[in-house]
Amino acid sequence: MSEITLTTYDWVPEMPRGLVRDLRVRWALEEAGLTYQVNSTPFRDRGPEHFAVQPFGQVPWLTDGNLTIFESGAILLHLAEKSRALMPKDPRGRTEVLEWVVAALNSVDLPSQPWALFRFMGYPGESPEAQFMDNFLNARLERMEAVLANREWLAAGRFTVADLLMADVLRQVDRFDGLAKFPACQHYVARSTTRPAFVKAYDDQMAHFAAADAA
Amino acid sequence: MSEITLTTYDWVPEMPRGLVRDLRVRWALEEAGLTYQVNSTPFRDRGPEHFAVQPFGQVPWLTDGNLTIFESGAILLHLAEKSRALMPKDPRGRTEVLEWVVAALNSVDLPSQPWALFRFMGYPGESPEAQFMDNFLNARLERMEAVLANREWLAAGRFTVADLLMADVLRQVDRFDGLAKFPACQHYVARSTTRPAFVKAYDDQMAHFAAADAA
């Protein structure tokens, strides 16, 4: 048995499959070559024992020895400490990874996730609030486009956990065609999500939920 | 001269004063008792040299020796490594701080910041998108209320940088009366923002921008 256990839902509907946030943790574990097992928690009946480890009633969480960690961004930074494949050891490289991880979690995901959820819900998109989020997201994507037009990866001159997270955030925008005007962002998502570790993580998440359909 | 320099705008309009994100960094520096100086960058004309250090054209950024760091959340985690006042050294305490820092940056700020911006803009709030953000924010606040009803501080049994960040996120909701149904969250914001280090940081930010009015 590995020391590392990733917990995700036992099942989710078709629509969010491939987007549940255990995927980014699977991806990091595969990039790092760490051994892990996957546990399930009920999607439909989230009891007190779920809220005790994940206070927002979401997934994933990770157990590593006697530590339990929630928030996928925190899990990624925890795993990054265990593997140079995810983060270099020198202060400048670590700082670059940290600032871009936070940029993905806050500066980019903050407009992109509501924007994607509005589309997911099928809202008409004509309200001032919808227009505001369009402009907010596009302003951030313009800046990401300028950055990614000039470099292959965000931090430390090579692929790190910062790219893993930023690409995972941006591919959810891409899913609703939000990157159409931002070719450097599109190419970045493409070169990130064709990495073997992403492909395995994606296939494993799809198989995990498909197995629950069959059960 | 201190090794640590915090850079913020030279001036901002009245409305965002007291909310510019250099405040949370000032607060952390005061809690940690670290010596620092404050530099200004133009609010009105943001040139290439601004985007070179802060790719989204925002503030703050921090220089610490030969490192420059953007994203206030990343700056807080950087400072937390320098001071036990902000984060304990043991693995469990560090993990708890990390997960709640990310919870503030992503799970809570993600609905709260668009929600607050919609109010700041004075939108009517009747669109499906506005209702969605209301429900999204309230769902997260219900969970924060359950957590804060049972503990004084979020991580490691004492005030840490996770509280500093979460309280700074929640006070922006409080400003638009969004915590009215969440008394534990309100009390948490009150006990955080009456700390001498917050009061000094707040007063210093207000004085910094007021000095620019007079100039």
Summarize the helices and strands and which ones pair or pack:
The structure is a homodimer of 215-residue chains.
Chain A: E1 4-9, H1 22-32, E2 37-41, H2 48-53, E3 61-64, E4 67-70, H3 72-80, H4 91-121, H5 128-148, H6 161-174, H7 183-193, H8 196-214
> What is the strand arrangement across the widest sheet of chain A?
2-1-3-4
CATH topology of the largest domain in chain A: Glutathione S-transferase Yfyf (Class Pi), Chain A, domain 2
| Secondary-structure arrangement, i.e. CATH architecture of the largest domain in chain A | Up-down Bundle
Write down the oligomeric state: homodimer
How much beta of chain A, percentage-wise?
Answer: 5-15%
* Low-confidence blocks of residues of chain A: none
Question: How far apart are the first and last residues' alpha carbons of chain A, in Å?
Answer: 24 Å
Kindly name the structural category of chain A. alpha+beta
